[in-house]
Every structure is written in structure tokens, then in C-alpha cells.
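Cross-posting from the chemistry board since nobody answered there.

I work mostly on the small-molecule side, so proteins are not my area. We synthesized adenosine-5'-triphosphate and want a rough idea of how it might sit in this target. Sequence and SMILES are below. Is it possible to get a predicted 3D structure of the two together?
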Amino acid sequence: MLEFSQVTRTFRDGAGVSELTVQITAGEIVALVGLNGAGKTTLMRLALGMLRPQQGTVRLCGSPLDAVTADGWARVGALIEVPLAYPELTVRRNLHIVSMLHGSDPRRVEDSLHTWKLAALADRRFRTLSLGNKRRVGLAAALHHDPRLIVLDEPSNALDPLSVILLREQLTRRAREGAAILVSSHHLDEVARIADRVLLMNAGRLIGELDTSGNDLERAFFDRILLDDRHRAAEEQAG
Ligand SMILES: Nc1ncnc2c1ncn2[C@@H]1O[C@H](COP(=O)(O)OP(=O)(O)OP(=O)(O)O)[C@@H](O)[C@H]1O
């Protein structure tokens, strides 16, 4: 569904991501974990065509992103950083607009409001919502049209425990129904619970998978990061 081949995108100060190679297939949940600044959001922005690679190729359903049609993009649902919404419009109106943009049935807006427990907030202006509720609207908007590829950057941020459970149920159900899902997170326990694979990012590179079968996930996480830091330092010294 989504494929990165040797993708590099660096910024002026040298930060960014390098030589990313990864595939996310239909029906699986892949989580990205890493320290702040590791490159998780950059990878996701590349996946959505919000950034262009300087080297390498990103493919969606086999097509390079430049060749993906509007119909192809309509099958993608994403939430990166803050939800894109009109602050002065109501929650319901915002979801209607998203529905029209994706060409999905506007009658399903009421289902989304119900699913995400937003019915009581449906007539409130978006700007007046709490941060967690804004994020719930963003998730409802990202998933409203039953996307085949779902890309969510730190989706559980600011959510209350009930919404975290709701999100977990939504993602596992959609993966069972064949969606490919990429999520980033700092909550190791949560990703261990839902993800089929947990990819570790460090200093702009994918450095392997985190083994989530052990008791001490934090320890496993920091051990891998530390080892990678040591390797890189040794390589830099050597050459
Ligand atoms: N537009 C930009 N211009 C310059 N540098 C950028 C830009 N976007 C990201 N970076 C840099 O690229 C690196 C990776 O950032 P990114 O936001 O992808 O990290 P992250 O893993 O998502 O971090 P966090 O966990 O804090 O969200 C950081 O050093 C960041 O400062």
C-alpha cells in the first residue's frame, strides 16, 4: 500500500531523514517510535506528499506520489499535527466539508459524530473546543471516508482515556477490514498493544523493530537508541 525506497529529505541545517526503506501493507498497523526530532513527522509528511524526497521514491498502491490521482488521494486519511478545520464553523459543518472533499456520503457525518462521541459538540464552533476535542474532530475527519491508508501523527496526544480506547478500537477494526495504518507515538505501551510492527527511528533513520514481547519496553527502547548512538559516534570517529 505504502512503500518508501531509499528516501532522503534533509533540511538546511542537516536535520531530516535519510535512506528510509519500508513497506506498509494492507491490514497491518505499523507504529513509529523515537525521541523528539527523530524524524517521525517528516516521514509521515513524505508519505502524504507534503514534502518531496531529495532522493528515493515514495509509492502509494504502486504509483510514485507524483502519479497518484485525486481518487487515489481520496482513499487516504491523515492527521498530522493540528487538525485542518475552519475555526469559525461548527464541528458538524467542518465534517460536512471534509466529506465533500473526499467524495463520501454526507449522511455519514452523523455516524462519525456518534462514533467519536461528538454529538453533543456538533453545533459548537471548532475554535471553542478543548484541545482533546479538537483532536477527536481531527480523527473523525481523517477516518470518516473509510480510507485504505491511514497516517496519524501522535493520534493519542491530548485524548482522554475513553478516547484512547475508542481510537484503539477504530484502528484495530479498520486494520482487520484491510486498511494499512501508520501511526507515530510516544506511548510505548499503547503501540505495543495495537501495532503489528513497531519501527524505531533515531536521528533520521529507521534503525529496526522494537521487540514488544518483553516486560520492560522503555528499557528495550533506550537500549536500542543508545546502541545506535554509539555506532554512529564510532562511525563518525572512524571516518
Ligand atoms: N520544515 C523544517 N525545516 C527545518 N528543519 C525541520 C523541518 N521539519 C523538521 N525539521 C527537523 O527535522 C528533524 C526531524 O523532525 P520531525 O518533526 O520529523 O521529528 P519527530 O520525530 O516527529 O519529533 P517529535 O517527536 O518531537 O514530534 C528535527 O531536527 C526537526 O527540527
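Reply from a structural biologist on the board:
Welcome over. Reading the output above for you: Residues 217-238 form the longest helix (22 residues). Residues 11, 15-16, 34, 36-42 surround adenosine-5'-triphosphate (CB under 6 Å). Happy to explain the C-alpha cell format if needed.
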